[in-house]
Amino acid sequence: MYRPGGVYSTTYADEVALFRLPLEKVALGAGLAALALFPLVASPFLMTLAVFLLVAVTGATGEGLLLGFTGQISLAHGAFMAVGAYTAANLGTFAGLDMMTSTLVGGAAAAIGGMFFGVPALRNKGIYLALTTFAGQYIILFVLYLPVLDPWTRTVKGYLMPDVSVLGLSVPYERRDLFFYYLLALCAAGALLFAKNLLRSRVGRAFVAVRDNDVVAEMLGVNIFAYKLMAFGVSAFLAGFSGAIFAYYVESILPEHFNIYVSINYVFMVIIGGIGRLWGPVLGAVLVVLIPEGLRLLTASVGQALPAYVVYTEQTKLIIFGVIVIMLLIAEPRGLIAIWDRVKVYFQAWPYRYL
Amino acid sequence: MTSTIGRWLRFTPSTSLVFVAALALVLASGGAAGAAGKAPIVIGACMSYTGAFAGPASEWADGWKDYMKQVEAAGGINGRDVKLVETDDEYKADVCLGIYKRVMSAYKPSLFLLAGSPQVAMVYPLAQRQRVPIMTVGAETHSFANPKEYPYYFGTVLNTYTDQARATLQYLKQEAERRHKPLPKVGMLTSSQLVWGVETERGFRPYADKLGFKYRVEHIEIGATSAFEQLQRLKEFGAEWVLLYHSPAIFSLGVKNANEIGYKPHFTTFQWALWEPIIDSLGSLSDGLVLVNAWIPWGTMPDHPGMKKLMALGKGPHTIHYVLGYVKAAITAQALRLAGDDLSAPNIKKAFERIENFDVDGLAAPITITPTDHRGNMTFFFWEVRDKKFHKIGDVTLDRKEATLEVK
């Protein structure tokens, strides 16, 4: 467990506290305040961006637990989001459940699906497990497209989600952005808190043991199959839950909104953010969501100024994004979180060069 | 790191802070991007300049812009310029939703352009709530033309895929009667998952039954690497004509696979599957392929006054999607003219529905849109590919009452 030099505990409560340093508590408070006040200054576009970012953070936290802390790679995250989304859609439409209930049940359904596709994890590792989950991604989407399931998937024109309601109270349409923003901020914070606690527990230590050396872990009495399944379940639950909320937000979904590129994006968020760190996927989500959007705005502005070259200016943003990622990984292969560590160390050591 | 690259790429805290500040500036500028003046007519657009739809969408955009340039050179629409606020959505629906929200809040456009079906599925519900008229590059699915379900959707002003399939059947019947031959057996190869495949099949079947055709429908999905099975079954069925309504990749695959198994039907399709780059890639296999669409392909009939005018713009060569963009721009401009000074969304919708016998320099049949039917055109042309060029072999005008708007 990371702990800066000179930090020690004098009580047991202090020892087990989630946030031990005063600066951590101040930063947490400032961060929560910024999250709370953001809607006051944000345009509808920035609110949409923030909602998409928070969906990504919630989902990426799950992928981070699975890939970063348990060492199991899953390329089916998009499909688990789809399972959560369509389960919630049908529960809301046919069973009349409100949004919160249906999204939680959607998450649970995705968790079951995740554990089902986690069974091969007992036999497969690394690239072979990736291929197995890759197959899972396509299988789930193929099932969604089956014509016989069309009354429950409505894949032809898109599934129009039911109205958003919580505990019987309908959310006014003009307040949707605000509602989803605060809901997702709570969910993302909750997911991170849950993950932080989980990693401090016996379960979390078992995850890390499975990641570091599953053979030795098994010899030491860790039931690696159970913990691998648990990791898949938790990861898929967060994916399904975030997928369900995403579906309610965008109002209409198609299976192709949860395609393989979504799954690859989530793995990418964990890797670029930093594997094996709680905040790594968060930073990865920020990069994957915000940088392309920033580049889109930049190239759109350039395209407005040079309309004859708009096709070329738009294509350059893909190149620029690729170059940024390559440069980041060359500069710091351990991910964005390691860059953040270096920033922290710099300020901790300042005005000296080294601690 | 001791290498030169490592030293150059080392992220110092100051570098990190500069990077974050730059990102924040870019996003802040985007969030508060300049408000539209009242003078120009603002049209928002999610253009797919990159991604799966890049080729056709880029051509379509060129056609649209070239038409609008002519309009501006002639004094604008009711004295106003047309300003296009476009952003590339990489053919991603969630990106398109973000662009839509940003552009709507910053520019309040009178109309919005979307690329294809995934974008329509995600953005149209919001556009309908906000009563924003939508024009599209593609997504010419039949049910989108029904104002009862999609009152603000005008992407089907030239054609729907279902009507193109029906027109093909009508054409085959006319040809059989003209040559005093029995009706040919017909096959259809399309998607069972995607909206344009499912609805096209739903419209095709009852119409084929009504006209007395014997037919067989096979399915193939995006990403398939072989169409041998489906084509073998169609071959055994004896289909002389195959309506292969799919992506360009699957269309090419189907034509090549059919050739490999010695199956030589007449392949016919719509504009998204067969266009100039596909003809080039198929080479000699492209001879005999039949395109059914609602407008004259670029460069075809060069003596036609409308095509002459188009080619005289001085740019090219272009493709059929360029002409499609040009024609849809013309129809949209006509609606904006009819809307007058009231550029509110409901008025623009009504203006579209007042378009009657609008002629786009003869590049398509005259367009008529009504409040009960957003299909502006029921005349379809048939073009056979010979020596990598389109040659007109026929045309069909469907009866609106027979070619119904509802498909089940």
Topology record:
The complex is a heterodimer of chains A (355) and B (408).
Chain A: H1 12-16, H2 22-41, H3 44-69, H4 77-94, H5 99-118, H6 126-145, H7 150-153, E1 159-160, E2 165-166, E3 169-170, H8 176-200, H9 202-219, H10 224-250, E4 252-253, H11 260-273, H12 280-305, H13 310-331, H14 336-349
Antiparallel strand pairs in A: 1-4, 2-3
Helix pairs in contact in A: 3-8, 3-9, 3-10, 3-11, 3-12, 4-5, 4-6, 4-10, 5-10, 8-9, 8-10, 9-10, 11-12, 12-13
Chain B: H1 4-9, H2 13-31, E1 41-47, H3 54-73, E2 82-88, H4 93-107, E3 111-114, H5 117-130, E4 134-136, H6 161-178, E5 186-190, H7 195-211, E6 215-219, H8 228-237, E7 241-245, H9 248-260, E8 266-269, H10 276-282, E9 290-293, H11 305-311, H12 320-339, H13 345-352, E10 379-386, E11 389-397
Parallel strand pairs in B: 1-2, 1-3, 3-4, 5-6, 5-7, 7-8, 8-9
Antiparallel strand pairs in B: 9-10, 10-11
Helix pairs in contact in B: 3-12, 4-5, 6-7, 12-13
Query: Shape of chain B, please?
Result: globular
Total strand count of chain B, please?
11
From the spread of the alpha carbons, the general shape of chain A counts as globular
Question: What pattern of helices and strands is seen along the backbone of chain A?
Answer: HHHHHHHEEEHHHEHHHH
Going across the biggest sheet of chain A, name each strand in turn. Answer: 1-4
